[in-house]
Write a structure and sequence with these properties.
Blueprint: E1 23-34, E2 41-52, E3 56-60, H1 67-74, E4 82-87, E5 90-91, H2 97-107, E6 108-111, H3 123-133, H4 138-151, H5 167-179, E7 185-189, H6 197-214, E8 217-221, H7 225-229, E9 233-238, E10 241-243
Parallel strand pairs: 3-8, 3-9, 6-7, 7-8
Antiparallel strand pairs: 1-2, 1-4, 4-5, 9-10
Helix pairs in contact: 3-4, 3-5
Bound molecules: adenosine-5'-triphosphate and magnesium ion.
Magnesium ion (MG) binds next to helix 1.
Region (Disordered): 1-21
Family: Belongs to the ABC transporter superfamily. Lipoprotein translocase (TC 3.A.1.125) family.
GO molecular function, one term: ATP binding
């Protein structure tokens, strides 16, 4: 992760590294039309994007621009109206829901904008969940989850349920859950939205460590300028397309 970025082709759509062999996650000609409202809205139109192993990308853009929609499509949580998403050589459209779920569990971590923790389980159990689904032993899963919760500053909250945690604490549990299985790529939707500067910086540091130790790739949707600038590239989502333009410095 570093702070350099290209503002040279301001305004042009990003067509980054498509087809590169080191690519972890690629989407091509991705469009999404929501047709359930009073009128059909095309939120994404012909988005092309690719992220390499060990690369980190920030996606910024105004509210309603389609950032969460894009992240959901990249994570295989929703299917596009047109175009395709390929994760580690697997096209989501070729997989049934079960195989998509397995691939996601093995290779992706996801931090939702509204964390989605399981309310009836403790912080520790929420973080253990991806490892149990991934068939790790219970004691190993428990050790790894506890370690990561300690790393995000929650060693004193292992047995609290989400309703017994603050908003920022829930967000940190969700971050630990996304990272615990050491996925190839982590998709984060506003991961530091509820955090103070110091806590946000500790999350940023954790991401950097995983990035350098394990080559984890990060796609981070954020309004947090400092977090955005920490990533290798900053892309701007507007008018249904990703641009290289840096909106933070015009
Ligand atoms: N399920 C849906 N059905 C219909 N329209 C939707 C649906 N989900 C989102 N939208 C619309 O699509 C647009 C993009 O929504 P999205 O949640 O992707 O925005 P966002 O960039 O993540 O915004 P924010 O920064 O506020 O989180 C919005 O105008 C929203 O109203
Ligand atoms: Mg959103």
């Amino acid at each position: 992760m570093k702070t350099s970025q290209s503002a040279s082709d301001k305004g042009s759509q990003a067509q980054d590294n498509s087809g590169s062999s080191a690519s972890v996650l690629t989407c091509s000609h991705l469009s999404k039309v929501y047709s359930n409202g009073p009128q059909a809205i095309e939120v994404l139109s012909d988005v092309n994007f690719s992220i390499d192993k060990g690369e980190s990308v920030a996606i910024v853009g105004s509210s309603g621009a389609g950032k969460s929609t894009l992240l959901n499509l990249l994570g295989g949580l929703d299917l596009p109206s047109r175009g395709e998403v390929v994760l580690l050589g697997n096209n989501f459209a070729d997989l049934n829901e079960k195989s998509r779920g397995l691939l996601r569990n093995r290779s992706l971590g996801f931090v939702y904008q509204f964390h989605h923790l399981l309310p009836e389980f403790t912080a520790l159990e929420n973080v253990i969940m991806p490892l149990i689904i991934g068939k790790h032993s219970k004691s190993e899963a428990s050790d790894r989850a506890a370690q990561l919760l300690k790393r995000v500053g929650l060693s004193e909250r292992l047995n609290h349920k989400p309703s017994e945690l603050s908003g920022g604490e829930r967000q940190r549990v969700a971050i630990a859950r996304a990272l615990v299985a050491q996925p190839a790529c982590v998709l984060m939707d506003e991961p530091t939205g509820n955090l103070d500067r110091k806590t946000a910086e500790s999350i940023q540091k954790l991401m950097e460590e995983l990035n350098s130790e394990l080559g984890t790739s990060f796609i981070v949707v954020t309004h947090d300028e400092s977090l955005a600038l920490e990533q290798d590239r900053v892309l701007y989502l507007a008018d249904g397309q990703l641009h290289h333009q840096d909106p933070l410095h015009h």
